[in-house]
Automatic annotation (TrEMBL):
Residue stretches of biased makeup (Acidic residues): 148-183
Gene that this polypeptide is encoded by: TSR2
Region of interest: Disordered: 125-183
Gene Ontology biological process: rRNA processing
Family under the similarity heading: Belongs to the TSR2 family.
Name under which the protein is recorded: rRNA accumulation- protein
rRNA processing found in the keyword field: yes
Length: 183
């Protein structure tokens, strides 16, 4: 019997949580912090808490029936990286991470798990090649789609970890107020 603390999660939300985890596993700054045990230790727990905080941000937007704002999420990501990992981000990577998370949220909200499935396949392939725990190497060997490419289902090899100064708008057009966990 499942513990009382485990409640059934809507498949859309479950896929979104998985997507958040996949995106964070591709973020070089975060992976280096976790691997290097930066920020006074407990980095694996802090990373798990980061997933929870990101999901809570989107849950709050759903409750308030507003579209999640990437700028707000960027601020949250920067605060977590600074407070929990003692990292001052200077490469604007939080912008790309926030934009991609917003795209994944919009997709999962309507039951589209294609991007999350693609991210899972890429993560499995990286881990099978033995580079899953080597963030620097994986950023150089595995192409990373940017937010616009994910929204369009294309992958031209842009790297999330590169922190490129290219346009990282979330590209989503769905202004629906539908809840991710609607019955």
């Amino acid at each position: 019997m499942a513990p009382a603390s485990q409640q059934q999660i809507h498949p859309n939300k479950e896929a979104f949580i998985e997507g958040v985890d996949h995106i964070l596993s591709r973020w070089t700054a975060l992976e280096l912090a976790v691997q290097g045990d930066w920020g006074d230790g407990n980095t694996k727990e802090k990373r798990e808490d980061m997933v929870d905080e990101i999901v809570a941000f989107f849950d709050d937007a759903v409750r308030r029936k507003v579209k999640p704002e990437p700028l707000e999420l960027e601020d949250i990501l920067m605060a977590i990286m600074s407070d929990d990992f003692n990292i001052s981000l200077e490469d604007d990577s939080e912008k790309e991470v926030a934009a991609i998370l917003c795209v994944i949220f919009d997709e999962c909200k309507v039951g589209n798990f294609a991007t999350v499935d693609k991210l899972a396949d890429e993560r499995d392939a990286r881990e099978a090649q033995g580079v899953g725990n080597q963030a620097v190497q994986s950023s150089q060997t595995v192409g990373r789609p940017d937010a616009d490419e994910i929204a369009q289902g294309e992958d031209s090899g842009s790297e999330m970890e590169s922190g490129s100064e290219g346009d990282s708008e979330d590209g989503s057009e769905d202004d629906s107020d539908e809840e991710m966990e609607e019955d």
